[in-house]
Amino acid sequence: MINNTNPDTIVALATPSGIGAIAVIRLSGPHAIGITNRVFKSRDLEKQASHTIHFGTIREGETILDEVLVSLFIAPHSYTRENVVEISTHGSPYIIESIIKLMIKEGARAAKPGEFTLRAFLNGGLDLSQAEAVADLIASNSSASHQVAMQQMRGGFSSELKALREQLINFASLIELELDFSEEDVEFANRDQLKQLILQITRVLTRLIRSFEQGNVMKNGVPVVIAGKPNVGKSTLLNALLNEERAIVSDIAGTTRDTIEDEMTIGGILFRFIDTAGLRKTEDIIEAKGVERTHEKMRQAKLIIYLVDPLQSTDTIKQQTEEVGQLHIPHVTVVNKSDLLSPQQQQELATLNPSFISAKNKEGIDELKDEILRKVNLHKISTDDVLVSNVRHVEALQKTRDALERVLYGIDNPVTSDFLSMDIKQALHYLGEITGTVTTDDLLENIFSKFCIGK
Ligand code: GDP
After folding, report:
1. Rounded to an integer, what distance in angstroms lies between the CA atom of residue 159 and that of residue 118?
2. pTM value?
3. CATH of domain 134-216+390-436
4. Is the reported ipTM for this assembly greater than 0.90?
5. Angle between helices 128-139 and 115-122 (to 10 degrees)
6. Superfamily of domain 10-127
7. Is the CB of 297 under 6 A from ligand 1?
8. Span 226-376: which CATH code?
9. Given this chain, do its domains 134-216+390-436 and 226-376 carry the same CATH topology?
10. Distance, CA of 75 to CA of 82 (rounded, Å)
C-alpha cells in the first residue's frame, strides 16, 4: 500500500540535468533539515525560521563542494507538507552529483519519479487531479494548454466535484439508513429531492464531459490535416506555415509518402499540422498505404485545409471540394498558386469562398491563419472556465453519469433501496477517483511514474 506514515527523506535534482547557471537540489522528509545541516557550514539550520534563505558552503569532510543558498520550508508549510530544503548550487553536473551522493551518505534516499508530488497528494496538499495538473503544467507548450493546466491545478475543477459528491454522500447515508429499517418500509431520503440533485449533478457532469473535447485539443493540439491532390503545394504550405523546411518539397507527384506532423501555435492555441500523401488512386504499394492513412487522418482531424491547384479546371476543383464537404468536418478551401491565377479564374472560384494563397511566395499565409482560428472556433477560455483535459477524468465522469442514470431509472421505476444504494455508491466511487478520495496503488503508480524525477 502506498502510504506516507513513516516517510524517509528523499533527495533529487529539481532542475533539468546538464550544465546551467544554477541547479536546485531538493530534499523532503523529516530529516531534510538535519541532513543538510550536517554538511552545511554557516548558521545552524535547525534554529532557523521557515521560508528563510541561508548562504554557506557544502562540505564533504574538509573539501568545499560548492557555495550554495539553502532555502528552508518547515512542515507543514511546504509543497510536500514535510520539511523541505532546496539547495541552489552552481549548475555543474559534477557538483550536483557530489552533493546528491553526500546527502544519500548522510541518510537521504534518491527520490522516485513524481515522489515529491505524490507526497504532496498523500499529505493532503493537493488532490489527485491537481497533482496531475502539475505534470500538465510542466508539459504545457502553448498559452491554451497552460491555462487549462493552471486552472486545474488551482482546483477549480475538483472543488466543483467535491461539493456535488458531498451532497450525494448525504443521500447515500439516508438510503443506507433505510436499509437498516428495511422491514418497516420507511423513506428517509426524499425521492423528489434525490432526483433533483441527481439531475443537477448530471447536468454538471454533461457540461464537464463536453468540455473535454475543447480541453483535450487545448492540451494536445488541434489536429489539422492539409489535404489535396499531389503537387497542389501541401508540403510547401506546411513549410510556409512552420516557416522552416520541414517537409520534402519536390516536383515529382507522390513525394510525400507518409504523413508528417508538426506543431505550431496560432493565437495561443497549439495546432498539429499533418501533411499527407497525395490523395490519388495509386498502384504504388507504399504510397497506397499513405493514401489510406490520409483518409484515416482526415477523419480524425478537427479541421481540413483542402488545397486546390488553379491549373485544374474550375469544374474539377468544384467537384473535389464537394467531396471534402461530404466528410462533415470543418474545412477551409484554399486555392494555392495564386501567382499563376488568371483574374477570370479568380472570379469563377470566388463562389467557393476560398482563401487565395501562394505558398511558394508566402502570400496570404497570415490571412489563412486567421481563417483557421475562425473555423476551429475555440472560444478564448477565461481563467474561470472549467475544462476537463484528462482522459482518465472524462472516463470517470462518464462512468459516474452512467451510474446516476441508473439511479434515476431506479427512482422512476421503483426499485428497493439496496439497488439505489449500490448505484449511488458506484457514482461516489467514480467521482472520488478523479480527486483521489478513492485510489488504488495501481492508479497512483500509473499517474506518478509518468512524472520526472525531482517533481
Ligand atoms: P504536394 O505534393 O502537394 O506536397 O506539393 P509540393 O509542396 O511538393 O509542391 C509541388 C510543386 O508546386 C513544387 O514545385 C512547388 O514549388 C510548387 N508550388 C507550391 N506552391 C506554389 C505556389 O504558390 N506557386 C507556384 N507557382 N508554385 C508552387
Report:
1. 20
2. 0.71
3. 1.20.120.430
4. yes
5. 150
6. Probable tRNA modification gtpase trme; domain 1 (3.30.1360.120)
7. no
8. 3.40.50.300
9. no
10. 4
